[in-house]
Description:
The strands form 3 sheets. A 5-stranded parallel beta sheet has the order 8-7-9-10-11. Strands 3-4-6-5 form a 4-stranded mixed beta sheet, with helices on both faces. A two-stranded antiparallel ribbon has the order 1-2. It has 11 helices and 11 strands. By secondary structure, it is of the alpha/beta class. Strand 9, helix 9 (186-191) and strand 10 form a beta-alpha-beta unit.
Amino acid sequence: MTRSALLQILADVERGELTSEAAAERLAKLPFENLEHAQVDHHRSLRTGYPEVIYAAGKTPQQTVDIFSSLVAAGVDVLATRVKPEGAELLLAAYPQATYNATARTISLRQTNAEKELVGHIVVVCAGTSDLPVAEEAAVTAETFGAKVTRITDVGVAGLHRLLAHLDTLRSADVLVVCAGMEGALPSVIGGLVSVPVIGVPTSVGYGTAFGGSAALLGMLNACSPNITVVNIDNGFGAGYVATMIVQGENRK
């Protein structure tokens, strides 16, 4: 249930186009739906502007499908992250119109944003090809909730000339999401080139002393560019979500 959908129901009742009983039936599942294994939060959009997102890791494929179906029935845009191939197969069988991104490990179904003009420009940058799964998760998240996304890949600091070739694109962004493993230097470099927020995403890419992304995380937290903030290791979803909130602001309501 989105804010606009709720207002539409109230307007229909006011005009006499919808009975109060029918309106009550539509609202019966607010604020949440009990699926026994999950309490699906149908009020999320009304409170925060975006619907609940399914974190599929740790859930069975059928549990993910059940939650996905509940959100689809509510008419919101639906996103499931960290979906394994067997889960994706089951979801696509139930919802062939959904989009599966194997690199990002996401399944998305846009129901409210499909006809809307995209709001805001987010540039998602990854240092290396190995960072692509995290970068794609950020990009898909932003696109699902109606932001324009441009992708720039494989422009790490080992070959800085590759990054500078995209300077015009970097400076066209409202927000940048920068994914990097190893020492995590790329957000700091980009932060010094642009006048907008940069969200650093440390990835668990690198050899032994990268410590599964901890080295990149600490490097980004200690970045000298003041326009940088940092999310958790491999949290492309969190970066894409916050970036979308920043660029859309009041338009998400």
